[in-house]
Queue: 4 jobs
Job 1
Amino acid sequence: GISQLWIEQGLEMGRPSRIRLELNVDGGKLAAARIGGHAIKVAEGRLFV
């Protein structure tokens, strides 16, 4: 079945966010996971490997 969770973070640092997590479990095993929410760009960078 499908379960939905809301995760809250960033409250103490003044940048609260709510993240939605949806899990689909079939036969006791994780079949799919989706994560989402709204975002505001606060920084940008590049990583060279």
Job 2
Amino acid sequence: MSEKTNRIIYWILTALIAFVFIGSAIGKLTANEEALKMATNFGLDAKTFSIIGVIELICVLLFIIPRTGVIGTLLLAAYMGGAIATHLEHGESVIAPCVIQAFIFMAALYRFPELRKTLLNSKS
């Protein structure tokens, strides 16, 4: 693929990930009724859920900013690992968190060519 195609894919994935995490964080920070119900099911109180929303915002901002993209990617991947574990522990479906995690990894491969070369033994 050309460099231009890679950048387009990267920006689409980045925008999609940012949209998902910012929306999720807003739901947590505004104490949305549906979000609070989910938090209660996971054994979390409103204050803890708000803190998680702040953490989500910080992680996604670090992910979006080019200079801090690597640390943001690592933090989002770790966050989603925790989400997958929480869903498994409570008998919830892990499909959505796994799909989001896959998008994070795909964005990282397109965004950081050195990572793609190392992991996939690719020349491009």
Job 3
Amino acid sequence: MNKTIEKAYAKLIVTSGLALKKGQSVIIKANADIEDFVCLVTKECYAQGAKYVHVLWQSEKVNKVQMKKASTKALCETLPMEVAYQQWFTKELPAYLWLDSDDPDASKGIDAAKAAKIKREKYKAVAEYIEARENKYQWCICGVPSKKWAKKVFPSLTLAKAKEKLYEAILLTSRASDGNGIFNWEKHDEILKNRCSYLNSLHLKSLHYTSSNGTNLKVGLIPNVIWLGGGEKTLDGTFFQPNIPSEEVFTSPKKGEAEGIVYSAKPLVYQGQLIKDFWVKFEKGKAVDVHAEVGEEALRSILTLDEGSAYLGECALVPFDSPINNTGLLFYNTLF
């Protein structure tokens, strides 16, 4: 990979994604196998005046061992240091960056119901802190190629070539392949905001989704709801890009008003688990039945995470003509 382009990508992430403020701390969540890029981003954070960069190193291999060997009770326990971290986060309000390089097959063999219960219990233990900092800090998720992710997307290529091709695709879809990502995102965000303005002018009361593979879903919208997309603002007015890449515009559905069935156009990867060729049936706003050829247990776990999980929380419109779709690739990652 061209080092100049790679540095420009890191700068895009810190400048446009995080909109890092001088003197602000940064948290980076990343897998250990992308250490070089984490170092590059860390350097860029300090170049832009970061107070301190905390890296939360992840290991999918270790996580899999934990999930298989430790009891559900033990894994549901929230340690004092975890609570202290959440308290610090809510007080300090650092910029939060997730460099996503996850192996799409990382959770193969892991009990989906067990994983869902652990996530639910862990969240409940620190929910007050997470909710207290909502809309008060910048956050960003972006993609970085890893060996296993690359081989999943390009199984017929050598490892080196697969990783190179995945990086090229990530940069292309992130509008960063020419080294002018910051400028490109300013223009892209303007387009997304114009789409939102147009949709807001229509004062839509409902959406009707249809597709050639069987989708027929009607969704009611909250009265006077607005459409959003692209960059967001914190409560203090800091403008940042939470998702790189991002093509959608979205709005909020009215609870209890979703009728019909939706079929997947592409696979879904949830916490490393592949969900493929699936459908979800809605009645009175609630998902009442699901089926998946691959990953049905994981799909059902999503809908039973809490009381609201079976209801739609967001409705989105995504253009068919987009850098992501035009690659013709299946990324095995919900960001793409």
Job 4
Amino acid sequence: MIDWTLMKSPETRATEALAEAKAQARTEITTRISAARATMITTLPGQQMIYMAKEAEAARYIADPAPDLATYPLLAAEIGITAPDAWQLAQIWLAMADLWRQAAAGLEALRLGTAAAVEAAGTVGEVEAAMAAVRGAFP
């Protein structure tokens, strides 16, 4: 005997396929953007906080008319390693922060735009079309 309650209509199958395609797309977006970010930053736990603290300290140092290196511990710790003096090191840190911000803006626009297009998709084909941008950027 056939249990007709287990039968799914074509519409139900299409709805389930769309939901699955969207879930897979969300995971793929996260994976690809995370991998792209990891090529530009150090992924050590806490490193993002260090980068933010370095940028803030560098900005304070540059703005300080009479900086006392004792009040800039991160700069003091890295002098002679990355740059020969605090001024040059602060400039490097600020430039790196600016470069990261520019790259992050592009990645964020791609991530959010692709995610919005995936969510708006009404078919599996539209989900695949929405994913073309992120797949093309990070094959």
